């Protein structure tokens, strides 16, 4: 797959989760990309204005806006750029908005670097190969609960209310490790 990389291998990675952003940056570097890391919409837009990268991996929800703004800005500066959106809290509406903005794929977090690479390098108009090890249904559920919990500022009662579950059930789920 690395032989399909264009000459310019710059890859903007935008995520407000610093450990994830750093891990994905290292993994993409090992796969032949030149990662450029940013943690916010403002920082990403400034980097795009300096030098619009060939590729972008952008989190949908950031503290100062959303990743769709970044994809729009990237395509203004460099129409041939290939971008994918990552999200821990996806739905059909945001997936459609991401594709309309020019994202070539929409992946659930935490995305595997191999899946990110496959999406970025898939020939235009073709779908990337399905993931080798997709997340289990239990893991997807756990990720969704964690995301809602985070959005509720770690308030167990509010999270339980929004998820429509009993508070004690939620506490038991939060106390366990993530399923594989």
UniProtKB/TrEMBL annotation:
- Looking at the keywords, is Phosphoprotein present? yes
Q: Which InterPro entries match?
A: ActR_PrrA_rreg, Bact_response_regulator, CheY-like_superfamily, HTH_Fis, Sig_transdc_resp-reg_receiver
GO annotation terms (biological process): phosphorelay signal transduction system
Identify a single GO molecular function assigned to this protein.
Answer: sequence-specific DNA binding
Q: Which UniProt keywords apply?
A: Phosphoprotein
Q: Could you tell me which species this protein originates from? A: Parvularcula bermudensis (strain ATCC BAA-594 / HTCC2503 / KCTC 12087)
Q: Which residues form the Response regulatory domain?
A: 10-124
Which protein, by its recorded name, is this? Response regulator
Known CDD domains for this protein?
REC_RegA-like
By its UniProt entry, which Gene3D superfamilies does this protein fall under? Answer: 3.40.50.2300, Homeodomain-like
């Amino acid at each position: 797959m690395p032989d399909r990389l264009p000459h310019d291998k710059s890859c903007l990675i935008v995520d407000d989760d610093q450990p994830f952003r750093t891990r994905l940056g290292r993994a993409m570097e090992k796969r032949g990309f030149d990662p450029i890391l940013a943690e916010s919409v403002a920082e990403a837009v400034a980097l795009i204005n300096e030098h619009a990268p060939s590729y972008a991996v952008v989190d949908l929800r950031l503290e100062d806006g959303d990743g769709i703004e970044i994809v729009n800005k990237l395509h203004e500066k460099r129409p041939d750029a290939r971008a994918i959106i990552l999200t821990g809290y996806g739905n059909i509406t945001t997936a459609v908005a991401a594709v309309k903005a020019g994202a070539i794929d929409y992946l659930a977090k935490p995305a595997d670097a191999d899946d990110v690479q496959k999406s970025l390098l898939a020939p235009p108009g073709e779908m990337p190969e399905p993931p080798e090890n997709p997340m289990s249904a239990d893991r997807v559920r756990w990720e969704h609960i964690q995301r809602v919990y985070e959005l509720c500022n770690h308030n167990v009662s509010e999270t339980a209310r929004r998820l429509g579950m009993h508070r004690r059930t939620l506490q038991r789920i939060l106390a366990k490790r993530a399923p594989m």
